[in-house]
Structures are given as C-alpha cells and as structure tokens.
Request: fold
Amino acid sequence: MIKRITPNIYIDNCKEAIEYYKELFGGEIKNVQLADGIDMFKGYEGKIIHSELHINENCVIYFVDKLDPQKAVSNPELILELDSKDEMDRLYSKLCEKGTIGFELQKTFWGAYHAIVTDPYGISWSLNYSEK
Reply:
C-alpha cells in the first residue's frame, strides 16, 4: 500500500520559485540543501539540490534546481482538491497575477468549481472545489 506520493519538481530558479509557492500556499520551507561543497555537484554551487515546502501535514512538495539545461523536464499538472470556495478564489486570483489561464474558473458539469492555471515557472495547477 502506498503511504504517500510526494511530487519532486525540477525547476529553474528554485530559491525564487519556492518563495513564490510559500507565499501562494503558505506553509514552511524546510530541509534546503545546496550543492556547495559536495563533489558530485561541483560547478553547481549555489544551486538547490533538495528543498521541501510543508504546506500542512498532508501536503508536502519537494523542489530542486534543474541542473542540466539540456535535460527536458516534464512537469505534471498538479490537482489541488480545496476545502472552500474562498480558498479556491484566492489561489486562482494569485496564480492568475503572473500565470496563464488554461481553463477559466467555472462551475462544471461534474458539479465542482474548476480552473487550470500555469504559473510563471511552468507548473500547471488544476484547482477543484466540490460543494458539499
């Protein structure tokens, strides 16, 4: 049985990006590890090789600097199941400030409010809120 799935997102400008996500989602940045002083990461000084954003006890995202510019990284669309329309509206508004709308916020045929926004770092966030 799977205990948990934790996304590990490779991203350009990880230090800047994780601050953006902390402001967006809240939570705490933990366990930031730099490449500095590690032989296998020589030449990548100042780059983040591991960091964690702990949004709450059930939501943790790992972020890493994309070290090889030639390596294509496909970022998945991450689905956020939200517990209130207010939180959905807040996140949607904040993501739209610097992001690109892929699916306008609307009530859907499956009875939920839904939207998709790609943030300035290329991550697509699928927001979903189902009224009870």
